[in-house]
Amino acid sequence: MKLWSQKQGIGVQKLKIKLWFGEVQNGKVTRSNDLRLSFLKATNPEPLPFNLVDVGIEIFGNAKNYYQTLRKTAIQVMEEVTKSELKKEDKYIVTLVKTLEDIDEAINMLKERLKDLEGIKENYLTELFENKIGELKELRRKVDLEIDSTTSKLAPNLSEVAGSKIAAKLIERTGGLEKLMKMPASKIQLIGAEKSLYKALARLRKGKKAKIPKHGVIFLHPFVRSLPKSKRGKMARFLAAKIAIAAKIDYFRGELEESLYESVRYRYENLRRE
Amino acid sequence: MKELTRNVYIKNGMLLTKSKYGSHYGERIFDGLREWVPWRSKLAAMFIKGYLIEFRGDERLLYLGAASGTTVSHLSDILDKGVIYAVEYSPKPFSKLLELAKDRDNIIPLLFDASKPWQYSGIVELVDFIYQDIAQKNQIEILRENIRFFLKSNCDFLIMVKARSIDSLEDPNVVFSKVKEDLSRDFKILSTGSLLPFHKDHIFIHGKKIE
């Protein structure tokens, strides 16, 4: 990204400054004929070389008119954006998590084949393979980052309490925030451990002894994982309860509730000390 | 009843703002005065602890991390002749903020990511004040970028720093002194203080951009 002053060296003429109500080029202002469109495209790499409102007042005649139009446009555009964002986000997370799993599988499979190949003969082909795997890893990293940012946007409390990775997995497994929100904590605790749960239940039905699993996906949480085995069940149960609350806050209110994470931390520290 | 600062009153230890509008988040109203709960709003906690910020009432203010508009609604009472650009990037609370903006005429609601100020550089004008309350790891960077883009020289900013989001393992006091040191390199720090007992692991930093 070049600095404004450097760009000025090349000539201001070439540079278009995009404002919500139009564009400035060669010091001349062109008004946009679709405010909704220009509002969302008012992106400039560097701070503007003038105060936006000065130009605005010139165009709209007076400050009152300027602010009224700005406010009206902002509300109108933002209402549309909010609606479509709210609809899309959790489907997006579900798809992203699935994508990540597929990429992981592909990487593993390719790595295995590469190992076989290398054992027999090393040539240009093995190198190509390595490059491809490298590219896939880069793609994986990008998808991972996107999952983080989307999840913490859609479900800030869930992401804070469970971590964005686990939050995304829980949303994916249940098929959306709404379904997760309706789940009891006891079920959330075992998401991802369905197979061993039903196995255990089947054994119990036959009158045999069985170990019922203590945790599914939430085992990945550092607070569960880092405790000794005997305490993991307690922590998992507590964490699942808080996750259930977090999902409900995210669904209905969507605002970060700071005390939630604090209580999880407090419980963890107590368990560790016990 | 005593007026603390513009449109902000204190009565029997309760903070209130003068308002002609109704309740936004379930707060109580006593004829034309809306209760401002310090447990809900960090700015209220700061005021009730005695750290005041003097507003003229006609400022242009950029609010980063507006959430559902709890604090914004009171700032909108205080800046009754001003304009508040309220930025929030999560659509859920934003829809509530949008309702608030429809009722009042001094709030411009913006659903954007505050860490990407260039995305709204053609919408927000140069402002007299930046207020930030964002629980993100890079909250200081976000503040810096927005100051660079939008804050006039010799104007103030106020940030609510959350230690746990910057480093969840480090002692909060260590995090705070690092942040203060970092900010004092480029800005003049006017005052700082904790928000206890209302908000744990938080401090406010009130500073000035000097050129």
Give the H and E element order of chain B.
EEEEEHEHEHEEHEHHEE
What percent strand of chain B? Answer: 25-35%
Q: By helix and strand content of chain A, what is the structural category?
A: mainly alpha
What's the Cα radius of gyration of chain A?
Answer: 27 Å
Which topology of one domain in chain A does CATH recognise? Serum Albumin, Chain A, Domain 1
Keyphrases for this structure?
heterodimer; A: 274 residues; mainly alpha; S-adenosyl-L-methionine-dependent methyltransferases; Serum Albumin, Chain A, Domain 1; 3-stranded antiparallel sheet; 71% helix; extended; disordered N terminus; B: 211 residues; alpha/beta; Rossmann fold; 7-stranded mixed sheet; 6 helices; 27% helix
Overview of this structure, please?
- The complex is a heterodimer of chains A (274) and B (211).
- Chain A has helices at residues 4-10, 35-40, 52-60, 63-120, 124-154, 156-162, 164-174, 177-181, 185-189, 194-205, 222-225, 229-252, 258-273; strands at residues 17-19, 22-25, 28-31.
- Chain A contains 13 helices and 3 strands.
- Chain A has a 3-stranded antiparallel β-sheet.
- The radius of gyration of chain A is 27 Å and the shape is extended.
- In chain A, a hairpin with a 2-residue loop joins strand 1 (17-19) and strand 2.
- Among the domains of chain A are: 4-61, S-adenosyl-L-methionine-dependent methyltransferases (2-Layer Sandwich); 156-163 and 174-274, Nop domain (Serum Albumin, Chain A, Domain 1).
- By secondary structure, chain A is mainly alpha-helical.
- Chain B has 211 residues and is α/β, with parallel strands linked by helices.
- Chain B has a single domain, classed as Vaccinia Virus protein VP39 (Rossmann fold).
- Helix content of chain B is 27%, strand content 31%.
- Chain A binds chain B through residues 17-20, 39, 41-48, 51-53, 56, 67-68, 70-71, 74-75, 78-79, 81-82, 85-86, 89, 153-154, 156, 160, 250, 253-256, 258, 261-262, and chain B through 60, 67-68, 83, 89-95, 98, 101-102, 105, 107-111, 118-126, 135, 148-150, 162, 164, 199-200.
